[in-house]
Amino acid sequence: MAILVDASSKVLIQGITGKQGTFHLKQMLPFGTDVVAGVAPGKGGGVHEGVPLYNTVYEACEHHAIDATVLFIPAAYCKDAALEAIEAGIKVIVIITEHIPVQDELIIVNRAKLKDAVIIGPNTFGMASWKCKLGILPNIAFSPGPVGVVARSGTLTYEIVGSLTNIGIGQTSVVGLGGDRVPGSTFVDMLKRFEADEATQVVVLVGEIGGNAEEEAAEYIKTMSKPVVAYLAGKSAPPGKRMGHAGAIIERGKGTYEGKVQALTAAGAQVATFPYEVVEKVQQLIRRS
């Protein structure tokens, strides 16, 4: 099992004929993703890399039962593309794009809540369940198994997941929340799904400084029956300096590394100091189960 998408999910790509859309389509297909359609305004009726093209999301949905869409759309046009997908009834929407205006993000996220759609991102690496990848994650890192992963950082996730795969521990699903100030989903949203997923035995949380997402996650972790292993980036970051992501900034004493570690530890999560420790802790938990 997995969360949000699985091997049977039918996937749409918006912006499929662009440079990024084409490149990642060629990675998604060999992973096993069932890409049934692409949207490229003005190119409807054509075929791109074996995938039928449509002018609009509505048109694509008329011809295919689409479960999820991934957006490789320039920031200026992302709001319209996301709203089109939401209004068409697609329930899982992955927004890879960064530099989307904050007000546009607010509109997207609020509309998705009204339509009961799940937004992954913006500014995310995407997500993957076995045989279904939505985004830019490296294929080689993943394998099927009992570990659910939810993260704010992409490269750290690849390192941790790849290391787990190398010792024979695979994943149910891996979800990137994105690094912007207005995320479409939270740690708590994904933790709830992993808690309900029968195949997930251990959850890995990859967080970072800034905001209060990890502290909110800690409150929910107190209620979980499944063990959580956490790693936090930004231990050495000075206050007031943004570290990579728009949301990774310590302001007025809030969102500190120490505060997050304290909250997660108090909630019962095992907090790793280094990425390799995550792998060791997960391995120990899997052996006990």
Spatial ordering of strands, largest sheet: 3-4-2-1-5-6-7
How much helix is in the residues?
A: 25-40%
What structural class should be given to the helix and strand makeup? alpha/beta
| Average pLDDT, all residues | 94
- Give the N-terminus to C-terminus distance in angstroms: 18 Å
The biggest beta sheet reads: 7 strands, mixed
Write the H/E string, N to C: EHEEEHEHEHEEEEHEHEHEHEH
Number of strands: 14
- Rg, rounded, reads 18 Å
Q: Show unreliable segments.
A: none
Beta-strand content bin = 15-25%
Using the alpha-carbon principal axes, give the shape: globular
Count helical runs. Answer: 9
Keywords: Ligase, Nucleotide-binding, Tricarboxylic acid cycle
Subunit structure: Heterotetramer of two alpha and two beta subunits.
Enzyme class: ligase
Organism: Heliobacterium chlorum
